[in-house]
DNA sequence: GTTCCAACATTTTTT
DNA sequence: ATGTTGGAAC
């Protein structure tokens, strides 16, 4: 790592100072203001699609072009590697050449750089390893067992969640407030302390530590802090609404001297509260940095008028907003479309058909390619219905999200082998693979190795070696363990011999077991490791259907190594960069979660599954109440604003949830869509009111008295009857059919408040005349009765 | 030490 | 419905 206080500036950068500044001409007044306000704190409130990245990159270019800062004096922080990469590319494009911006990166990657320099200040060595989630869990499991706690009642996951939560708040074990220590059987902090101790002895960090250790160093070593404050003269932060307390402290410490900090964000797009993000950080900015300029980017370049208005209508229901008024010059366009379906399968079928017809070109829109269309769901299990449908009709799709490449079992195993080869004393890696593939080493062998290692104060590998030498292990396990230890020695020796610059060196003698002669590039070494360890043959002999895919992944892993010049370099990269962008040129529809969609845009967006309980998610509301609901609403806002030209919201009257059919109530967010900007595709109705809405009428619009005629004569009701006749659903086992008057279930009032009550928990079996038949199972009946007690005074014709 | 079955949970995800 | 996991049976 070089260049921190480096005074030498390449000539190309000096030349830049005299370069004209055309980038300013492309900006609107607000963006320009945000670029020109270089000194002092700035909060750039950038709504969806308002060109914040453009403003941010222009600002960096401006700093460089005016000579206010050199590339190594600009700290630009993002959350994801993707965002960092994108920003680097855009700056390079504006500058016309590739520049080193050494301090542009994620919170974590920058923290690692700082921490490697000062590791000893927090009791680590500069070569510390970064643990992934899996390692963390295994470590915690050990601690929990050691503490004599029932691992079943108190799972490691929960402890991991708790510690993560504390680290997000920047609470070290001694700083956890007493109000928070009740969790995990009152022993959370105790285990937290032990966990930190273990990490230190392993010379390791988890992700939270990367930030937290930096904060600790800054707080306890003013000289180090001052150094960074002097070096990093301009600070820029993207997605500020997603920062947690630790990140906030990190930033504040670095910025407090010069206060040249520019935070960019949108309080309406804060959707990561559940992982520690504090919207409060952005809401409080002006208090934290008195005299801050607040610049609002409000001109939207992405969406049509109607889409923007629909999104604004929904988000307006949130309290506690800084407030923005998005506007666009793009008048007209399509209204947001709303459609109800009988069930989730029909919804998938309809969307599939719609995608194909948009591909051909309908509704006066040009033909839109599959790359231009996306389906954004609330929860990943919703993706399945679409995958099923698209597979049957042969519509190409891509799923974003899901398990990442580096999180797959075979990849982590392979990585553990590499880690051992690089640093044989990596105990966690040792534990992971000693018995993978099976080497006849079980619980007893594991304990013996551990005991020997601990007694000698050495690593597990050395412990194993001693155990073998002392004959402390017998049977067929011994021979295999010996082969394993020797293998690690051999691989490690190969790495020592093949220093990165000399990667082509032939070190044949070191590898008697391997094939005749080859240059031991790290790529080849990786292959050798996987073969000699028996890991590859383990999967080759595996007859399960997923084995071939795993072998493919291993090949891909080895291929990925080519882009690095050593195994060490690769491991460091992977620890921080877990993305999995296998770009595929073919046109495909994108299916992903709303969370994954933030920051993206598509001409056509489908938003399925807008049903209460699913979206907004019941769990979110149960756990976080109004706060949770507001975050869900921001998610709705994010979803709608991804669309450029056409946005379609849909819901289903019935959905299979964990194998059980459940009737669904349309999302309360549908009620918040401003009618003037919505086109309802299921005539004649609108939103609200359970089955009524599913049948295509609006319960919330029905006047008493006029209601029934409206409902029964509506085309939507007729359609529902037809469908019920042609496609009856399987009733739940032990179910009984119950007939309910549609007007009674659609809506009831309490005082002056209107409720849309879900009397579901069952499946709609059929429609007859003005009655709806629903099947409930036993549990469903219980819950329905509870609901009916509340609603009884309004509903006539109760079935119970 | 390995294999099999019952119990269990099941929002969102980055680093 | 489905995938994971821990413990009992082999």
Detail the topology: elements first, then pairings.
Elements: H1 11-16, H2 29-36, E1 42-46, H3 52-65, E2 74-78, H4 81-95, E3 104-106, H5 107-118, E4 129-130, H6 133-146, H7 156-168, H8 188-201, E5 204-205, H9 207-220, H10 222-231, E6 234-237, H11 245-255, E7 261-265, H12 279-283, H13 285-288, E8 293-297, H14 305-315, E9 336-343, H15 344-360, E10 373-377, H16 383-393, E11 397-399, H17 409-422, H18 427-433, H19 443-456, H20 460-469, H21 475-497, H22 522-532, H23 535-540, H24 547-561, H25 567-576, E12 589-593, H26 594-597, E13 602-607, H27 618-641, E14 643-657, E15 660-663, H28 668-671, E16 678-680, H29 690-695, H30 707-713, H31 715-726, E17 736-741, H32 742-746, E18 748-750, E19 753-755, E20 762-768, E21 771-776, H33 778-791
Parallel strand pairs: 1-7, 1-8, 2-3, 2-6, 4-5, 6-7, 9-14, 9-16, 10-12, 10-13, 11-12, 13-14
Antiparallel strand pairs: 14-15, 17-21, 18-19, 20-21
The chain binds a DNA duplex (15 and 10 nucleotides) through helix 5, helix 9, helix 26 and helix 27.
Explain what you see.
This protein is α/β, with parallel strands linked by helices and 800 residues long. It is 46% helix and 13% strand. The protein contains 33 helices and 21 strands. Strands 9, 10, 11, 12, 13, 14, 15 and 16 form an eight-stranded mixed beta sheet that branches. Strands 3-2-6-7-1-8 form a six-stranded parallel beta sheet, sandwiched between helices. It is globular. The termini are far apart. The protein binds a DNA duplex (15 and 10 nucleotides) through residues 79-81, 106-109, 130, 132-133, 151-152, 206-208, 210-211, 242, 271-272, 274-275, 378-381, 401, 404, 438, 440-444, 477, 575-579, 593-596, 614, 617-620, 631, 635, 656-660.
């Amino acid at each position: 790592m070089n260049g921190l206080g480096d005074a030498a500036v390449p000539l190309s950068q000096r030349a830049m100072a005299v370069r004209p500044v055309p980038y300013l001409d492309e900006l609107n007044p607000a963006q320009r203001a945000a670029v020109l306000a270089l000194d002092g704190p700035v909060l750039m409130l950038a709504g969806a699609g308002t060109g914040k990245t453009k403003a941010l990159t222009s600002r960096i270019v401006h700093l460089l072009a005016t000579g206010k800062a050199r590339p190594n004096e600009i700290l630009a922080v993002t959350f994801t590697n993707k965002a960092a990469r994108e920003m680097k590319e855009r700056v390079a494009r504006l500058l016309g050449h590739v520049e080193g911006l050494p301090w542009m990166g994620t919170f974590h990657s920058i923290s690692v750089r700082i921490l490697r320099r000062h590791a000893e200040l927090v009791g680590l060595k500069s070569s510390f390893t970064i643990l992934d989630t899996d390692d963390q869990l295994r470590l915690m499991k050990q601690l929990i067992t050691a503490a004599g706690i029932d691992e079943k009642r108190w799972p490691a996951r929960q402890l991991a969640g708790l510690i993560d939560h504390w680290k997000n708040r920047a609470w070290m074990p001694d700083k956890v407030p007493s109000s928070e220590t009740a969790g995990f059987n009152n022993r959370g902090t105790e285990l937290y302390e032990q966990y930190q101790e273990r990490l230190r002895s392993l010379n390791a960090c988890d992700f939270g530590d990367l930030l937290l250790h930096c904060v600790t160093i800054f707080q306890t070593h003013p000289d180090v802090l001052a150094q960074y404050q002097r070096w990093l003269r301009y600070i820029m932060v993207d997605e500020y609404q997603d920062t947690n307390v630790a990140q906030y402290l990190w930033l504040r410490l670095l910025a407090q001297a010069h206060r040249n900090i520019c935070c960019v964000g949108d309080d309406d797009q804060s959707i990561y509260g559940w992982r520690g993000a504090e919207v409060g950080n952005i809401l409080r900015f002006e208090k934290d940095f008195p005299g801050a300029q607040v610049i609002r980017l409000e001109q939207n370049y992405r969406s049509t008028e109607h889409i923007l208005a629909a999104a604004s209508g929904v988000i307006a229901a949130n309290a506690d907003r800084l407030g923005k008024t998005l506007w666009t010059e793009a008048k007209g366009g399509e209204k947001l479309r709303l459609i109800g379906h009988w069930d989730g399968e029909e919804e998938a079928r309809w969307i599939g058909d719609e995608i194909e017809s948009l591909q051909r070109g309908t509704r006066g829109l040009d033909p839109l390619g599959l790359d231009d269309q996306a389906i954004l769901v609330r929860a990943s299990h919703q993706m399945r219905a679409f995958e099923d449908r698209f597979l049957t009709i042969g519509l190409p799709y891509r799923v974003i999200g899901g398990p990442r490449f580096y999180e797959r079992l075979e990849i982590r195993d392979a990585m553990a082998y590499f880690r051992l080869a690089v640093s044989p004393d990596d105990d966690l890696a040792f534990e992971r693979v000693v018995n993978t593939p099976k080497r006849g080493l079980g619980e007893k062998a594991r304990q013996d190795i551990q005991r020997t290692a601990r007694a000698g104060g050495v690593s597990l590998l050395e412990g194993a070696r001693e155990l073998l030498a002392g004959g402390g292990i017998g049977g067929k396990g011994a021979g295999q363990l010996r082969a394993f230890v020797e293998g690690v020695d051999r691989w490690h020796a190969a790495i020592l011999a093949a220093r990165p610059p000399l990667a082509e060196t032939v070190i044949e003698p070191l590898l008697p077991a391997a094939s005749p002669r080859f240059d031991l590039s790290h790529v080849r070494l990786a292959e050798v490791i996987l073969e000699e360890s028996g890991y590859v043959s383990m999967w080759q002999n595996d007859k399960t259907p997923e084995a071939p895919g795993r072998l493919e992944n291993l090949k891909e892993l080895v291929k990925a190594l080519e882009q690095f010049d050593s195994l060490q370099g690769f491991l460091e990269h992977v620890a921080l960069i877990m993305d999995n962008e296998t770009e595929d040129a073919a046109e495909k529809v994108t299916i992903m979660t709303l969370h994954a969609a933030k920051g993206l845009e598509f001409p056509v967006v489908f938003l399925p599954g807008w049903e209460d309980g699913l979206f907004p998610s019941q769990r979110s509301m149960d756990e976080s109440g109004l706060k949770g609901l507001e975050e869900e609403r921001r998610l709705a806002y994010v979803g709608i604003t991804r669309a450029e030209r056409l946005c379609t919201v849909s819901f289903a009257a019935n959905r299979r949830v964990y194998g059980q059919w459940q009737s669904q109530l349309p999302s309360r967010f549908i009620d918040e869509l401003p009618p003037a900007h919505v086109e309802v595709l299921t005539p004649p109705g609108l939103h609200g009111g359970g089955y009524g809405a599913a049948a295509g009428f609006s319960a919330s619009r029905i006047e008493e008295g006029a209601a029934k005629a409206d409902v029964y004569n509506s085309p939507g009701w007729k359609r529902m009857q037809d469908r019920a006749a042609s496609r009856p659903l399987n009733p739940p086992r032990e179910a009984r059919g119950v007939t309910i008057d549609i007007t009674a279930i659609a809506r009831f009032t309490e005082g002056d408040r209107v409720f849309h009550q879900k009397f579901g928990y069952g499946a709609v079996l059929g429609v007859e005349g003005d009655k709806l038949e629903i099947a409930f199972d036993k549990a469903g009946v219980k819950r329905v009765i509870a609901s009916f007690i509340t609603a009884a005074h309004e509903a006539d014709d109760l079935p119970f």
